[in-house]
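## retry 2 of 3
previous attempt timed out at serialization; input unchanged, resubmitting
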Amino acid sequence: MNPTAEAAINTTKDQMEKAISHLESELTKVRTGRANPSMLDGIRVDYYGNMTPLSQVANVSSPEARTLMVQPWEKNMLEPIQKAIQAANLGFNPGSNGTAVIINVPALTEDRRKELVKKAKAEGENAKVSIRKARQEGNEAVKKITKPALTQDEVKEAEGKIQIMTDGYITKVEKHLEQKEKEIMTV
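## retry succeeded, writing output
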């Protein structure tokens, strides 16, 4: 196959990989019934006037299945961390024991589980849209390669490879969603 067409296919594959990795990172933020330190990944804390990621001012751990513990590096950060967690509107009510912020993760109701499944499916749909967009851009890149460099058959072959890749990545998205739905709905 023409090296230029191969490059277009590889670029398309990279874009599809990025869509999958973005989906994976977004799905870790959708909570299941268990406490997971990644639930607090998006939280930023006011650290001496700078909005800093929580992971850079404290250690986040999960000592039990329904408890998160946030141990700040500096004791005076307890209150700003509590405020940041409440402001994030994750449905948590953080408490403090004087040295760490303790968060009891409430059990999910059936309605809340269904909402979370919808959210996960929406993230999956976004990933599928990104994959299809990458397919479209890849096909356009292949078609832009000048005629003498690529025959019509080579264009069709490259488009076929891109379509097979697209189908594979869409299947990966479906598997991720299926697994996440099972995690969410398990009591």
